[in-house]
Automatic annotation (TrEMBL):
SUPFAM superfamilies: Adenine nucleotide alpha hydrolases-like. This is Nucleotide-binding universal stress UspA family protein. Residues 10-145, 157-289 form the UspA domain. Pfam families: Usp. It comes from the Bacteria. It comes from Promicromonospora sukumoe.
């Protein structure tokens, strides 16, 4: 049982391929920020897929577990050598990848996944794994490019769809900005769908932009009172949500978006906007799962006590 003295670990999925490299580097950075450990997670299947989808060392089904152990041993060795200041452990799971990664994620505070770069059927299968995990995990899931390295990108972009509906997302974003000493940019997209370019400036879009600006001002008022040290910008942009968010975050170090609470209106699958953002963003994307009830904005005294 966790005592509260040691933060929950940052989990990162490794599969023995180069796809995991950026994810491991990001997990190490995040663990340093949080003062936590890194846990490398590998899922060994119970049967051997065909078509080169599994980067195992042995080709016999009975060797899959030992192959998984080898993948983890190598990953732990490389990670510990590159980051001797961070404690690293590992977890070997067996079974369907989506279900096992979701189950493992419950032991951590964040799950980091490398974005798929393969093509054809392999991309389809691995991409479905990423979308399935993001859709089902009960903790935030971060998807990052395989070649990610820490650079000079600064600032966090937060895609806000509604307020106070996205209060949990804002709580997460303000806390992340506080530990990074970063600027927050709240972005609300006035969805123009498939409108023609000459219709984007119409009255309906202007009305949506004005409503979005009022919503963001309310959110900034409530949350900045609790986090006055964090510089915050807000903007409403007309466009298609996925494209607009990816463009808004192009120079940022992190894009944060919310996953709706799962109910009859939001079944266990990832919506088109989130799926597109996760697949196309060059900036790391953190997807924060929302619960049924919005989190209230904290008072300034409670925020100082918990930061």
């Amino acid at each position: 049982m966790r005592t509260g003295q040691q933060p929950a670990p940052v989990l990162v999925a490794v599969d023995g391929s180069g796809r995991s490299a950026g994810a491991v580097r990001y997990a190490v950075r995040e663990a340093r920020l949080r003062g936590s450990t890194v846990r490398l997670v590998h899922v060994a299947p119970t049967t051997l897929p065909e078509g080169g989808l599994w980067p195992s060392v042995g080709r016999e089904v009975e060797d899959l577990r030992s192959s998984g152990e080898m993948v983890l041993d190598r990953a732990v060795s490389r990670t510990s050598s590159a980051a001797p200041d961070v404690e690293v452990d590992s977890l070997l799971c067996r079974g369907p990848r989506v279900g096992e990664l979701v189950r493992a994620s419950a032991t951590g505070a964040l799950l980091v996944l490398g974005r798929e770069t393969r093509h054809g059927l392999e991309r389809l299968v691995a991409g479905a794994t990423t979308a399935g995990v993001v859709a089902r995990a009960g903790v935030p899931v971060l998807v990052v490019r395989p070649d990610w390295r820490e650079d000079d990108a600064t600032g966090l972009v937060v895609g806000v769809r509604s307020y106070p509906g996205d209060s949990e997302l804002l709580a997460h974003a303000y806390a992340a900005a506080a530990v990074r000493h970063a600027t927050l940019r709240l972005v609300q997209v006035a969805d123009v769908g498939d409108l023609a370019p000459d219709a984007v400036e119409g009255a309906d879009v202007d009305t949506a932009v004005a409503a979005g600006n009022r919503m963001l001002r309310e959110a900034v008022r409530d949350w900045s009172a609790a986090f006055p040290e964090i510089p915050v910008q807000s903007t409403v942009v007309p466009g298609k949500p996925a494209d607009a968010l990816v463009e808004a975050a192009a120079e940022a170090e992190l894009l944060l978006v919310a996953r709706p609470h799962r109910d009859l209106r939001h079944p266990v699958r990832l919506g088109r906007t989130l799926r597109t953002v996760v697949r196309t963003s060059g900036t790391p994307v953190e997807v924060v799962p929302l619960s049924r009830d919005p989190a209230p904005a904290p008072s300034s005294s409670s925020a100082r006590a918990t930061s």
